[in-house]
User: Which sequence fits this backbone?
């Protein structure tokens, strides 16, 4: 998803929530069934197709959890290394994205714990891990508290349903919905605040 699309999604949802407080974004729970994951056990082409399709989602999800670009990059590689062995656990009714991100969640946790053990032995130089360039709405989303930026990544960028998100994050579906609504409002308000500040600075500079 481009940054322009992300911006439009968030601002649009925020406006919708203000106009109809009790409504939520449409939940497209039904996913088109696929045999790709089942074939990934033995078919390298299927695994490669899944990698191309979901590598950005895995990176974004892992990065939203720990804010560490190295962990996110390693998570992408390790997730798809483990996918063939885990493919037998895939069940109908679960989307590809939910299944793959479930693996990525465990991988990210392991990588983070390993990183923390390493840092306990050897202090890491400050500013060694700098996130990739951040601008506009993406910067705003990444600056949100972890639980809010994660749910925006899963809902808008990965297109997961609230049911899938609640299962992945081990929270009630109602919590997923309310947290998403709060995240959208926070991101939209902060984005508009930054835009207003930039306009004021330009006016003052004239």
Assistant:
């Amino acid at each position: 998803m481009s940054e322009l699309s992300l911006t439009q999604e968030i601002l649009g949802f925020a406006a919708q929530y203000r106009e109809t407080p009790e409504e939520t974004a449409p939940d497209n729970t039904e996913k088109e069934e696929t045999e790709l994951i089942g074939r990934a056990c033995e078919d390298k082409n299927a695994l490669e197709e899944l990698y191309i399709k979901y590598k950005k989602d895995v990176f974004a999800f892992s990065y939203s959890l720990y804010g560490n670009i190295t962990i996110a990059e390693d998570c992408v590689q390790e997730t798809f290394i483990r996918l063939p062995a885990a493919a037998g656990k895939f069940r109908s009714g679960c989307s590809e994205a939910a299944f793959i991100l479930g693996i990525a969640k465990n991988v990210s946790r392991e990588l983070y714990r390993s990183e923390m053990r390493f840092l306990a032995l050897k202090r890491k130089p400050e500013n060694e891990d700098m996130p990739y360039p951040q601008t506009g709405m993406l910067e705003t989303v990444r600056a949100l508290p972890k639980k809010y930026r994660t749910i925006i990544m899963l809902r808008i960028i990965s297109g997961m349903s609230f049911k899938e998100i609640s299962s992945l994050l081990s929270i009630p579906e109602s919590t997923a919905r309310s947290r998403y609504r709060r995240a959208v409002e926070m991101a939209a308000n902060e984005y508009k605040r930054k835009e207003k500040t930039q306009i004021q600075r330009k006016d003052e500079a004239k």
